[in-house]
Amino acid sequence: VVNQCLRLEIKTRTTVLVQENAASYCLSKSAGLVDGKLTTSQYSAKDFDGLAAVLTEEDRLLGLFVLPVAQLTKMGKVGDVSVPSGTLSLYPRWSVPKSPRAHEAKAWQEQ
């Protein structure tokens, strides 16, 4: 909280991965130009307090996820990690993932 304000990073997605009914969000930020190419870097745990991920389809809201940066850090999605994942898959309540890894990913969302 900065000056009594919560700093949220907002990511939106308008399509769902059909095979798992999931939405994948890229968790990286612009790091500027290097040799004329736009580069990205992983977020630091100090960049924001929480992530708001919005999933829509045309004019319908399919999902709204609000995740604290502490949870994202624990998962290795932000912060100083040796192998940054860079992608976060989120599953709406109505989705039924097929793979065991997807089931694990959805399970922590429902805690």
Protein architecture, described:
This protein is mostly beta strands and 111 residues long. It contains two helices and seven strands, in the order E-E-E-E-E-E-H-E-H. The chain has helices at 69-74, 100-109; strands spanning 8-13, 23-26, 28-34, 37-42, 50-57, 60-68, 87-90. Strands 1-5-6 form a three-stranded mixed beta sheet. The model has no long low-confidence stretch (mean pLDDT 79).
Q: What's this entry about, in short?
A:
The protein is mostly beta strands. The protein has helices at residues 69-74, 100-109; strands at residues 8-13, 23-26, 28-34, 37-42, 50-57, 60-68, 87-90. β5 and β6 (60-68) form a beta hairpin.
Shape: globular
Approximately how much beta-strand content do the residues carry? 35-45%
Provide the gyration radius in Å: 15 Å
Task: Count helical runs.
Answer: 2
Structural class: mainly beta
